[in-house]
Design a protein that fits this description.
Length: 401
């Protein structure tokens, strides 16, 4: 007889930062887990799952992953969007975890087997100044990283993306506020990369995240100005809502472009991919509908020579990293995986079999996605409301963070 889902619950915990985890249990005694973390809006996804999705899961056959996906996507009527797609992703990954455990196989085997043995990853070298950022870059290189994202404080600005300077904003229970001046940044960024390339030498891949802050022509200028430093990618040069903007950027620079950590469906990525406006698609398992949907995005991307570069910030739980590495190991057009180290307390709650060695991430061989979740340990780290920063131009205008 087919197995059935007997229980599903949402656990919110904060081992160093907030994570939302969906746990699904089956009559055959299998447990699957899925990440449902949407940074800064965690409780919205938790409620979506607990109130609207969990009741529909009980009694279903866990093997029917595609059917569950369609049921939750089409059945919601209100499609797409980060909350819906993160909730669907959590169910999808938990069901893939269960299916792979039922088969006694690591997930990548069910996805077609290994296309590669290890996944190139990039770490984050940040610094308040160019000198600090470049020193961090050298430390990463010494640890074996072959690809390194570099972000540095811009002189004259207090708190910018990637650099955790103190916040001048009065209320610590509300979002911290950064400040931003595009002209200063555009003058500064080439100097950062000149120094970085000089210290890193030609072989280290350098990456940079402009975090949605530039207007189309500013993005084109930046891409052009960074060409001499041979970046692996320049990420989120403009906000992704206006994809027309990227046509202009593309016409003016050959610096490779990566976009998509905030995208949730194949429809959001469609023009970016089919018009070859980007080189790397950043959509990831947790925010883009799980393995089932991300595979559709990656397959479309493969047709157009676009490779994956899945988001892997520390606010995505180790469950997502486990799933992303099995995914990356199997697909033909893997590009690179972002690797941001989780807070040490996360190790008390999540155990994982993936590992970093020599600049690459290696997925494990244990059945499922290779991540376990200790609910008793999670209870020791209660949820604490937290926000992403916001950003203002120096005249006070609210800007993109
Ligand atoms: O929750 C948002 C962060 O994950 C994001 O700001 C990090 O831009 C980011 C990146 O590239 O990792
Ligand atoms: Mg980013």
């Amino acid at each position: 007889m087919a197995d059935r889902i007997t229980a599903a619950r949402v656990v919110i915990c904060s081992p160093g930062r907030n994570f939302v985890t969906l746990v699904i249990e089956t009559a055959d005694g299998l447990t699957g887990i899925g990440d449902a973390t949407l940074n800064g809006r965690e409780l919205a996804v938790a409620a979506y799952l607990q109130e609207h999705v969990v009741p529909c899961l009980i009694g279903r056959d866990p093997a029917r992953i595609e059917d569950a996906w369609q049921y939750l996507y089409r059945g919601a009527y209100w499609r797409r969007g980060p909350v819906t797609m993160t909730a669907i992703a959590a169910v999808d990954v938990a069901l893939w975890d269960i299916k792979a455990k039922a088969a006694g196989m690591p997930l990548y085997q069910l996805l077609g087997g290994a296309s590669r043995e290890r996944m190139l990853c990039y770490g984050h070298a940040d610094g308040a100044t160019i000198a600090e950022a470049v020193d961090a870059l050298v430390r990463y290189a010494e640890e074996g990283y072959r690809a390194i994202r570099i972000q540095a404080g811009v002189p004259g600005l207090n708190r910018i993306y990637g650099v955790h300077a103190p916040d001048a904003h009065a209320d610590p229970t509300l979002p911290a506020e950064g400040d931003w001046d595009t002209a200063k940044y555009l003058r500064f960024a080439p100097k950062l990369f000149e120094a970085a390339r000089l210290r890193a030498g030609p072989d280290i891949h350098l990456l940079h995240d402009a975090h949605h802050r530039l207007l189309p022509n500013e993005a084109a200028q930046l891409g052009k100005a960074l060409e001499p430093y041979d970046l692996f990618w320049l990420e989120d040069v403009t906000p992704v809502e206006n994809q027309e903007a990227l046509r202009h950027v593309r016409r003016h620079t050959t610096t490779p472009l990566a976009i998509g950590e905030v995208l949730n469906t194949i429809y959001d990525c469609q023009a970016l991919i089919t018009e070859q406006l980007i080189d790397y698609i950043r959509a990831t398992v947790v925010h883009a509908g799980g393995i089932t949907h991300l595979r559709r995005i990656a397959d479309l991307a493969a047709l157009y020579g676009v490779r994956t570069g899945c988001h892997g910030a520390a606010d995505l739980s180790p469950v997502t990293m486990g799933a992303a590495l099995h995914f990356g190991r199997a697909i033909p057009n893997f590009g690179i995986q972002e690797y941001s180290i989780h807070p040490p307390e996360a190790r008390e709650v999540f155990q994982w079999d993936w590992r970093f060695a020599d600049g690459y991430l290696h997925s494990g061989e244990s059945p499922g996605i290779g991540v376990t979740f200790d609910e008793a340990a999670a209870a020791r780290f209660p949820y604490a409301r937290a926000y992403l920063d916001v950003n203002r131009l120096t005249d006070g205008t609210l800007w993109n963070w």
